[in-house]
Amino acid sequence: MSPVMTQPTTEPLLDIRDLSVSYRTSEGMLPAVRGVDLRVSPGEVVGVAGESGCGKSTLASTVLRLQPQDAEVTGRVEVSGTDVLTARWGDLRVLRWAEASIVFQGALHSLNPVHRVGEQIAEPIRLHEPELAEAVVAGRVGALLEQVGLPRERERAYPHQLSGGQRQRVMIAMALACRPRLVVADEPTTALDVMVQAQILELLSGLVRELGVGLVIISHDLSVLAGICDRVAVMYAGRVVETGTSEQVFTAPVHPYARALSGAFTRIGDPASRYAPAGLAGDPPDLRDLPAGCSFAPRCPRVVDACRSAEPALLELAEGRRAACIRVGEP
Amino acid sequence: MSGPTLLEARDVSVAFTTRGGSVARALDGVDLAVAQGEVVAIVGESGSGKTTLARALMGLQRPSAGQVLFEGAPLEYSTRGMRGFRGQVQMVLQDAAGSLNPRQTVYESVAEGIRLHRLVAADADRRSEVQLVAAALAEAGLRPPERLFLRYPHELSGGQKQRVLIAGALALRPRLLVADEPVSSLDASIRGEILALLLKLRRDLGVGVVVVTHDLGLAWNIADRIAVMYLGRVVECGSTEEVLESPRHPYTQALLSVVPEIERLAPVVLTGEIPDPTRIPAGCRFHPRCPALADGSAAAAGVGDRCLGEPLPVLSAAGEHRTACHLDAVLSRT
Known about the structure:
Distance between the termini of chain A: 55 Å
Strand content of chain B: 15-25%
Distance between the termini of chain B: 33 Å
Helix content of chain B: 25-40%
Number of helices of chain B: 15
Strand content of chain A: 15-25%
Strand order of the largest sheet of chain B: 6-7-8-3-9-10-11
CATH class of the largest domain in chain A: Alpha Beta
Order of helices and strands of chain A: EEEHEEHEHHHHEHEHEEHHEE
Largest interface: A-B, 39 and 41 residues
Shape of chain A: globular
Strand order of the largest sheet of chain A: 6-7-8-3-9-10-12-11
Largest sheet of chain A: 8 strands, mixed
Radius of gyration of chain A: 21 Å
Number of strands of chain B: 11
Radius of gyration of chain B: 21 Å
Oligomer: heterodimer
Shape of chain B: elongated
CATH architecture of the largest domain in chain A: 3-Layer(aba) Sandwich
Structural class of chain B: alpha/beta
């Protein structure tokens, strides 16, 4: 077994501290993630919410040091006590799949179209445990498929023979193949129908209950996170702007951006939203050219002059409850 | 709120023959009427036939049975007939990024329809092409329009691209827009802005909208009426309030229960997915997944056998709240 497995279980599975990631581009540095902290304990489900370009997928990629070559990273990322950013290649290989795994966005394109799905699930098992006999590997693949709600026989299917929801289940089976303790799911339900989305979310929360893994779910859809997560962090322009329990962030958000994100989800039956879709004017800022002060100020309905002078710190309002807005607490 | 019927589907079926020779009934008898200035949502999952219905309403797909009528007259599928029709009914596609020509400027994209339909010569206010393009962009909420004329699609945000597509459709002064998942690829904060635009177009210009979506919240936001589709049929239709606040079909009830925002309902997560349209189940097409059949409530009401063996009639397009369900037929009688 790998040395990281001997860590006591009270340690967080994932501990990200003051992480910043910038991409070198032809037009200068692009800060995708700016000073993010995130911790995940065993059996805990943590959501990261935010829209395109807020840095949430970049954040996910750093968990297993999968960020692109042209990224400059500062801060610390620890997975089960191992410093991922400085780990030697051999240690990193042990970490990937066996300690933490990622379900990537776009199940439709992440599977190899010319291999049977059973083969694709078996691949990481063979890599990490080469001593296993073929029959044992086949047994594990069958068990994994059943665990994600697919019949064993589907191992012989090619990706194109499966529906979107079934492919997403295969991706989850693959992520579980080497029995990791931490799973990161990047937009696991995007592009799936509501009913299939509900099935996948039910599957993921069942896995957390049964296996006690830590789960990070990244989504642009706060309502998806609200139902399944214990805690949620909302990101805007590379920073975390609000954290709290999913209940707090979804039903009583305090940062104006989190409010807009939560308000954008229609409560069916609510007369206030009938013929009144809620939106937020403007577009997210250009990360190469961030506005002075709070990066949300140009779109903020509560903006005052002081917002434009300095970027507000992520202040603790209560235990586990933080927001980066100077007007929090004002009526 | 709405005037006379503008566009109507009467018992429309669309069948495709697959390579194996089996017949997929993508639409299997659908009635739908859209009145002038009305916003109608066609709601369903992938495979329900909602996009095929939108294509049939647009004349892009000829029905294999039944008719599509515009102002009471059947569509003429000749090039000439279609050109006249397209001036009145325009489509806004799902994927804004993929629908714009990457090598065309915003101006060219919007001007194309104006030229094709010779609208400069026909304009009552004697406006130039530039003025017509600017007016359409401004109506779609892109102000000042001139600033965008020479931009290419890659220079625009997702919300701006969607607005350019809507502007291209509006330039033709259509009376009806058919929008297929108009906001599904957009971020939550942008989504509201585009939906508000569709409502504004109805209010200011009297444009009717058929919106195809899987998102029940979107329907609550903008639609006057809803048709819920399952496997090529409308299974429930009525006013938005009726369908979303007192759903009668078990499928609609299940769909509503999994909308994350609704905490008052216990989620009914249906197993499996919509079946293959080459093998539509006998009896009620929803019966293999129906929670009311599975938990015995259909049998208790004495309709279990009918659910398995007796097909349901096509729902009529008329305004009142209707549903195609044997159990509901018994329950609503008592």
